[in-house]
């Protein structure tokens, strides 16, 4: 694993940041009891020594800024807003991700090598997908191969989109020598239960007449037999971690089709068809998993496990076919990126993402960053494009204050268009509050 934080000298920008950033505004804070409970320090309230080392550990602002760009803009604003131009202040950047979009970029910013492969996209056409490699550890992001980003604008294929390319990307990582794979899932265009991924890795899914089942989740209704015995034997020697911020089961009212299908263009009838097809898929796999005798866990149990419904059910495929272990995405990524080491000597952590809302509290990057920093007694503040959490909720999550972009510019379209300059202005205010 690599410690990814890169420090800026007293008069330089953060080396790992590049691009243009976002965020902004009015601060909301926790009460005194929260601060006493967490043991964090609050320089903004008049303590004698302002922080000398700041760690920026923010996720992307989706639709406007990458995590690296957020770090660069915050760095620029902090230096302008800090006393004496930030003399004596050290700023480190550790872009983070929770397993979804941007996970590979965060790993590359941390020092992993970016690798690319031509794979099958969700609609069947070839796409170029990236993964990150450091030694024998690979970070593979399913959205690179099978994500919504590969669909033309306004075009969805809820019944037929395939994860075949995700399997090809995993195979590329194995070919490169990876024996530990962090498989980040999120941002998918698919709801095929990972059948496409497993097919690319050697599994066979056949109709009654012995022909392969067509790509996508809908055709799984025609599945008659499944054979996992041909899966790449290297998988048995590889530690695969399923990294996701989603703990939904595969099927049912909280399953992959019901909860996430509409985001991928599935109408009411499509959702019902997909859920039924996935349930049938589980029943067929029950026999295949039993016959393989490679796991004491049944396919039905895997389907109910946390993370099985992640990314259109690719979580289920990873659990049942790859022997993956589920862990919250941000928890895994903080370990991979070297966050514990980056916290050494840090006085203030700045985290954030595009929207701080209820979802943030359930496994998103800012909550994970804040929890880890709070455990070390380090103050945490956040920047975001939009804020919908009350001060008490922020405090319970370990976030001292949050600064929202919309406090400076209430028009969402302008917030997105002018994200970088607004974030720099926000960071200036944060510097005045916490670095003075």
From TrEMBL:
It comes from the Bacteria. Residues 17-42 have a biased composition (Low complexity). Its EC number is 2.7.1.31. Keywords: Kinase, Transferase. InterPro entries: Glyc_kinase_flavodox-like_fold, Glycerate_kinase, Glycerate_kinase_RE-like, Glycerate_kinase_sf. SUPFAM superfamilies: Glycerate kinase I. NCBIfam families: glycerate kinase (TIGR00045). This is Glycerate kinase. It comes from Streptomyces iranensis.
């Amino acid at each position: 694993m690599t410690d990814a934080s890169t420090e800026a000298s007293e008069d330089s920008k953060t080396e790992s940041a590049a691009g243009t950033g976002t965020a902004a505004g009015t601060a909301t804070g926790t009460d005194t009891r929260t601060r006493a409970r967490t043991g964090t320090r609050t320089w903004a309230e008049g303590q004698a020594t302002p922080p000398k080392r700041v760690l920026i550990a923010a996720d992307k602002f989706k639709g406007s800024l990458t995590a690296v760009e957020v770090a660069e803009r915050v760095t620029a604003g902090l230096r302008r807003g800090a006393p004496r131009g930030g003399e004596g202040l050290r700023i480190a950047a550790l872009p983070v991700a929770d397993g979804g979009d941007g996970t590979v970029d965060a790993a590359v910013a941390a020092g992993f090598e970016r690798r690319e492969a031509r794979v099958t996209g969700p609609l069947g056409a070839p796409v170029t997908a990236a993964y990150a490699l450091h030694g024998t550890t690979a970070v593979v992001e399913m959205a690179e191969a099978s994500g919504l980003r590969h669909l033309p604008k306004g075009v969805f294929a809820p019944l037929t989109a395939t994860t075949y390319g995700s399997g090809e990307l995993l195979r590329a990582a194995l070919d490169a020598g990876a024996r530990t794979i962090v498989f980040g899932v999120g941002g998918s265009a698919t709801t095929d239960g990972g059948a496409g991924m497993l097919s690319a890795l050697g599994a066979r899914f056949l109709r009654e007449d012995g022909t392969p089942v067509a790509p996508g989740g809908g055709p799984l209704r025609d599945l008659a037999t499944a054979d996992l015995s041909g899966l790449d034997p290297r998988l048995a020697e590889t530690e695969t971690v399923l990294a996701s911020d989603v703990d939904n089961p595969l099927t049912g009212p909280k399953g992959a089709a019901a909860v996430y299908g509409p985001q991928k263009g599935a109408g009411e009838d499509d959702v019902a068809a997909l859920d039924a097809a996935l349930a049938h898929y589980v029943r067929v796999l029950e026999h295949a998993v039993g016959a393989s005798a490679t796991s004491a866990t049944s396919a039905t149990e895997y389907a109910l496990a946390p993370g099985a419904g992640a990314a259109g059910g690719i979580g289920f495929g990873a659990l049942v076919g790859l022997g993956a272990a589920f862990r919250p995405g941000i928890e895994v990524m903080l370990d991979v990126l070297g966050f514990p080491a980056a916290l050494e000597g840090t006085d203030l952590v700045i985290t954030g993402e595009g929207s701080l809302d209820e979802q943030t509290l359930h496994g998103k990057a800012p909550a994970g960053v804040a929890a880890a920093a709070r455990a070390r007694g380090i103050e945490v503040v956040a920047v975001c494009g939009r804020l919908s959490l009350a001060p008490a909720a922020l405090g319970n999550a370990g976030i001292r204050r949050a600064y929202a972009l919309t406090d400076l510019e209430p028009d969402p379209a302008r917030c997105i268009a002018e994200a970088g300059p607004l974030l720099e202005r926000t960071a200036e205010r944060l510097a005045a509050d916490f670095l003075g």
